[in-house]
């Protein structure tokens, strides 16, 4: 006799999960479902909005007039938008290589055991555990004209230095890039440290038996083995760097002038501060195309590395 | 021998330089959070408060909501702290559960095709600002704006790519033979998951959870877009205070920064050993 109770229901659910088809496909279907639910209507809406001339201040969006391609023309002719895109790529191009080099160098130095290693690794990981908004705000405090950072610089230089970090055009840009480097070198350090810890021992031992020097082993054995790890670090960091938003918002509010206005900050302003929603949508679409091109290239590189890895592992 | 000692010395010097670079902003934040308002901005800046105080912490941690008083905002964060905690934790838990299930089914059965992890990663590449505008309209119609559920759903989606890529590496380490043997001995699929796969990937699950928790805990742009008055997170509050007081309320803001940092640092410290091995994304030859 079976009474339909909680245990029976649980057994039923378990049996359902055990079925091969369900077990294989349930995660896939739920993830696809979530992405479809969140992204599909949004992308459609984005495209639709970009053809309107809707401003939040002027009634509901379904009443807005069609503007056709005018919004796109406006977006492409908007110099501030073009500069914001270029600036964002520029920031990423400055910050990401620095992060990779610093992270790699530090990981290399901390590779083998020595006294104090645990202390250094603990400290080096700290920045990635801090909220970026906090980092931006914290730096805005350090970098005031009469702040501790200028004091330190003066101390090191032996004369009074007053860099106007937050109101000078170039200095503010350096500050934003510096914030990104300070925070995310922790992540590249982490990626490279775990990469180096996972290096296989046989090829390295074999090279040593054959009389290779330390430098030769590093250059001809270890570095090629680490190449895929380097590739993913580049991909992950560059795609995050193109989204830079928090640091300019909290450090400089995009200023002085437009010195630190990244594309995310500018689109934020167009959409919410200037309430030109349709313009923001058109610019978003253009940005999406630009990012998609970049993504395409980046993922191809990554895929090639991973495939080569699979082939080597079989061989 | 002498060369080795020289190398060791140079290494310590270089590492100490970066240690100083890393600790300086953190130190300044901590020290400011213990300063009275008179010591926030001085020349020369004070590297140690003359009269350390807890007033900043008391101020921000008193119950109530932030209000304007005489044109200044009082900063109170108990509610946003709670909201942040719930949203980040639930979001990270769901993302880890869903993402590792997907990583497992891709690694074992290839669901979604050979390129599926790359397709997922490309979703992460979409800058959130791109979909911010339609998102508000969409979530407003669904009544998900300004709710826990809405933000959690979004965070799960943004974390999934990271979860899948990190968990793929850990699942790679589980020997398939072991799973097959267990199946042959009559264990059910769920039993294999629980008794073979779960113990072997436990440290990976913890590391992944911490990482995506940090991502959620720090996220600003989407939170700013999708919340209004009911729900608020720590990064939103910081952003608000920064613009409301022109960022001049240094002490309380530093206290908020310290409070927002502490739990993550403690968690990270506890699992540091696993953290240092868990970030190679399975991209090394075995």
Task: Explain what you see.
The complex is a heterodimer of chains A (315) and B (286). Helices cover 74% and strands 0% of the residues of chain A. Chain A contains 13 helices and no strands. Chain A starts with 5 loop residues before the first helix and ends with a helix. The mean pLDDT of chain A is 87. Chain B is an all-alpha fold. Chain B has a domain at 78-275: Orthogonal Bundle (MetI-like fold), CATH 1.10.3720.10. Chain B contains 12 helices and 2 strands. Chain B has helices at residues 2-33, 55-61, 78-109, 116-125, 128-141, 148-172, 176-184, 189-218, 221-226, 234-244, 250-270, 272-275, and strands at 68-69, 72-73. In chain B, helix 2 packs across helix 11 (250-270) and helix 6 (148-172) crosses helix 8. Chain B is globular. At the A-B interface, helix 1, helix 2, helix 4, helix 5 and helix 6 of A face helix 1, helix 3, helix 4, helix 5 and helix 6 of B.
How many strands of chain A? 0
Whole-number tally of structural domains of chain A: 2
Oligomer: heterodimer
Task: Tell me the total number of β-strands of chain B.
Answer: 2
> Poorly predicted ranges of chain B (pLDDT <50, ≥5 residues)?
none
What is the overall silhouette of chain A?
A: globular
| Assigned CATH superfamily of the domain at 78-275 in chain B | MetI-like
Class of the largest domain in chain A in CATH? Mainly Alpha
Question: Any idea what the CATH architecture of the largest domain in chain A is?
Answer: Orthogonal Bundle
Mean pLDDT across all residues of chain A, rounded? 87
Task: Report strand order across the widest sheet of chain B.
Answer: 1-2
Compressed to H and E, one letter per element, the order of chain B equals HHEEHHHHHHHHHH
